Amino acid sequence: MLAATGEPPTLRKAAREAQRQTIHGQAMNKLHIAISTAKLEDTVTDYSKRLGAKPCVIVEAEYALWRTETLNLSVRQDPSCKPGELRHLGWEDPAAQAFCSDTDVNGVTWERFTAQQQADEINAIWPGTDYQPA
User: Fold this and answer.
1) Burial of 99 per CB tally in 10 Å (0-12, 13-18, 19+)
2) Which candidate among 4, 78, 100, 102 keeps its CA 20 to 30 Å from the CA of 14?
3) Bridge partner residues of 109 (DSSP)
4) Closest CA to 106 of 6, 1, 27, 5
5) Going by DSSP bridges, is the β-strand pair 30-36/86-92 parallel, antiparallel, or unpaired?
């Protein structure tokens, strides 16, 4: 069901929670952006410079993830997407009870998850990665 804002309830709730956490000085939800790449190694070099941080996990020739104080960014070699194409958006939310997703009015998938839930997904897709969030 959509409210007057046109946002799905789960997105409105996440946005309100992010605002409330900022107001009370708690850790803010991190915006998650997932894009496709055809050149993972070059992308890691470029984005590490742009973000001023190295990825917290790299799966050789397939995937990289950066987690900064405000952003959760992943890049993946995904043959179903053009390089540079948005794969999905979401929130890394420490209060998420379970990994969930929905689709907005533009057909964009939005995910909501904790850092550990994301790590569990990474480890399930790429066994042996043994990624644990800091």
Assistant:
1) middle
2) 78
3) 103
4) 6
5) antiparallel
Q: Which residue carries 């998850």 as its tokens?
A: 113
Q: From edge to edge, which strands make up the β-sheet containing 63-67?
A: 57-59, 63-67, 71-76, 30-36, 86-92, 109-113, 100-103
Q: What does the DSSP 8-state code read for residue 30?
A: E
- Global pTM value: 0.79
Residues 6 or more apart whose CB falls under 8 angstroms from that of 80 comprise none
Q: Which residues contact 65 (CB under 8 A, 6 or more apart)?
A: 55, 56, 57, 58, 72, 73, 74, 118, 122, 131
Rounded to whole angstroms, how far apart are CA atoms 65 and 24?
28
